[in-house]
Amino acid sequence: MTLMKISIITVVFNNKDYIDNAIQSVLGQDYPYIEHIIIDGGSTDGTLDIISSYAYIIDKIISEPDNGIYDAMNKGIRLATGDVVGMLNADDVFYDPMVISDVARAFEKNPIDCCYGDLIYVDRNGTDRITRRWISKDFEDELFEKSWTPAHPTFYCKREMFEKNGYYRLDFKIAADVELMYRFLQKHKIRSKYLSRMMVKMRNAGVSNSGINSTITITKEMKKAIIENGGNFNLIKYLFFKTLKISQFMKK
Known about the structure:
By secondary structure, this protein is α/β, with parallel strands linked by helices. It has one domain (6-249): Spore Coat Polysaccharide Biosynthesis Protein SpsA, Chain A. Helix content is 33%, strand content 23%. A hairpin with a 2-residue loop joins strand 6 (114-123) and strand 7.
């Protein structure tokens, strides 16, 4: 049996403190057919030196200015040659060495176009200290309108879906990942599977969860994403279901 190739894209800019952890996490996966692509935005803090020390084993490295994180992600997808594409943020690590094996198994055993799972938020200085659990569920129509979304760092999709349904939109500041997943899952009805397992440890203080201003921005962008993709957005319903997520921030 020919193994499915999984492309993992890591986007980074001036993150010398954590990029090594991300690279080591990819190298620690037990799945043998991984393509790792790193898109660096032109780092000047020593990040590129760390990346270059792994040049012998990283499949593709690009270092040049870009138009933001989503532009960099698009570059990575266009460079990818894998059957399936996913992202591992420079701040993040895989939950355990079997994550990509389980992703590959999901595609091999199910007629799907994408899969996703759960993640935990952890303290930036200690990945053993959990600050939030993001538990997902099987996709159903209009879940996004209830403030639900898959955890983007756990989202793995067939490369052909991007070629067919489009890439990350650059007119979104912090919610282009959610817009893309809404477009794929809700508008284009691609086939999905929820993997009921932790997949990623995500360090706190990501771009899309850093204060009231970003909450306002992401709500506005969610409205835009839903309406422009043919859905119906109700602010009261959206905010009501958003408040129900508070339980995810309980420390465990």
